[in-house]
């Protein structure tokens, strides 16, 4: 076993602090990854603070992992020492249910094994990427193409796939009008990817504060939702709306922006229930849907797509000692657009 440096939440309220954790021995199908960068996702904060259910402490979070293969098990065929690789939100699944067999491990009937805070096959609790190394079974490790730097690739492993998957599933592309609600970590990736897919992209944000950024990232249009005329002017416009906002919004007002047959897909997860008026759907054969990350095969497709189109996340690289401050800034939406921890600073 390998004892490695990490930053952990000691409980639901205290700041993260330096610690060491143990990584399992590299088994026949395992890959040992020397982590270079770990992105900071809002889910890390929700989970560490027990907001999505009780957590086991100390907990090391982080599911946007980019690094280099340091060692492989005797049976590993997919990766070699020195390969640039990534790990996202899952590190295993049952591999035999209908969804696993279809390459949609995120929907595993028995529940996928999350990168942190999940019960692993050996009964231990998984620990995530705010650490120097991780051991992961080869099938849940993806290849990061050479065209992508590791720091800007890290956030693709959650924010990238979370937005790529619904854009892909609902056929964003030439001739399609796509709206992205919220320009944060997820939203900025949705804009870049939808634009690269060839769609006409609009950002729907509370104010015009980030308009310049939105247009630079690839949006064709930018609208303020605080302005009521936006909802009148854009009625019946969009084929697809990707909602990245985790706060309560007036869903029916947004459904009014969909064209006939359009879909509004939620990737943000507000804690409260959202009220949907059935008439807002019936009148235009509209859908109100959700989407959860993507399967391993699709995650690889997303990385290859991003490499081909020169898409990385817009990142602010930080030292690990800045992580508590960075979390406060994530909660204040004060980041453009993703913090990435340089794990070399873990020593
Ligand atoms: Zn995430
Ligand atoms: Zn399964």
Tag the structure with descriptive keywords.
347 residues, alpha/beta, globular, six-stranded parallel β-sheet, seven-stranded mixed β-sheet, binds zinc ion, 2 domains, Quinone Oxidoreductase, Chain A, domain 1, Rossmann fold
Detailed description of the structure:
The protein has 347 residues and is of the alpha/beta class. The protein folds into 2 domains: 2-158 and 294-346, Medium-chain alcohol dehydrogenases, catalytic domain (Quinone Oxidoreductase, Chain A, domain 1, Alpha-Beta Complex); 160-290, Rossmann fold (3-Layer(aba) Sandwich). Helices cover 24% and strands 26% of the residues. It is built from 11 helices and 17 strands. The protein has helices at 42-48, 98-101, 150-153, 159-169, 185-197, 211-217, 229-233, 251-255, 278-282, 296-308, 323-331; strands spanning 2-8, 17-23, 30-39, 65-72, 84-87, 90-92, 113-114, 133-137, 142-143, 177-181, 200-205, 221-224, 238-243, 258-266, 287-290, 315-318, 338-342. The strands form 4 sheets. Strands 3, 4, 5, 8, 9, 16 and 17 form a 7-stranded mixed beta sheet that branches. A 6-stranded parallel beta sheet has the order 12-11-10-13-14-15, covered by helices on one side. A two-stranded antiparallel sheet has the order 1-2. Helix 5 (185-197) links the parallel strand 10 and strand 11 (200-205). Helix 4 packs across helix 5. The longest helix has 13 residues, at 185-197. The chain is globular. The mean pLDDT is 97. One zinc ion binds at residues 41, 43, 63, 89, 158.
């Amino acid at each position: 076993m390998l004892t490695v440096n990490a930053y952990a939440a000691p409980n639901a309220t205290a700041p993260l602090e330096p610690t060491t954790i143990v990584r399992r021995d590299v088994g026949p199908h395992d890959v040992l990854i020397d982590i270079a960068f770990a992105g900071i996702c809002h889910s890390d904060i929700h989970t560490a603070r027990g907001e999505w259910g009780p957590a086991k402490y100390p907990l090391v979070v982080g599911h946007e992992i980019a690094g280099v293969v340091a060692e492989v098990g005797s049976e590993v065929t997919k990766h070699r020492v020195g390969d640039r690789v990534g790990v996202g939100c899952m590190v295993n699944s049952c591999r035999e249910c209908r969804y696993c067999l279809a390459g949609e491990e995120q929907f595993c009937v028995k529940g996928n094994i999350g990168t942190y805070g999940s019960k692993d096959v050996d009964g231990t609790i998984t620990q995530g990427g705010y650490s120097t190394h991780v051991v992961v079974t080869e099938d849940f490790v993806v290849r990061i193409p050479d065209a992508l730097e590791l720091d800007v690739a890290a956030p693709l492993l959650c924010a990238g796939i979370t937005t790529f998957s619904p854009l892909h599933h609902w056929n964003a592309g030439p001739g399609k009008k796509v709206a992205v609600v919220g320009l944060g970590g997820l939203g900025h990736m949705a804009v870049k990817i939808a634009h690269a897919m060839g769609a006409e992209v609009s950002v729907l944000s509370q104010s015009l504060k980030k308009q310049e950024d939105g247009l630079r990232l690839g949006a064709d249009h930018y609208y303020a939702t605080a302005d009521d005329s936006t909802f009148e002017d854009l009625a019946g416009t969009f084929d697809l709306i990707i909602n990245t906002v985790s706060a309560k919004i007036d869903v029916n007002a947004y459904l009014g922006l969909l064209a006939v047959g359009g879909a509004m897909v939620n990737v943000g997860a507000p804690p409260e229930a959202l009220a949907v008026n059935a008439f807002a759907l019936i009148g235009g054969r509209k859908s109100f849907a959700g989407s959860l990350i993507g399967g391993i095969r699709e995650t690889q497709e997303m990385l290859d797509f991003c490499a081909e189109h020169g898409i990385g996340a817009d990142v602010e690289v930080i030292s690990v000692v800045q992580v508590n401050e960075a979390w406060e800034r994530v909660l204040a939406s004060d980041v453009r657009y993703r913090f990435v921890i340089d794990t070399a600073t873990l020593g």
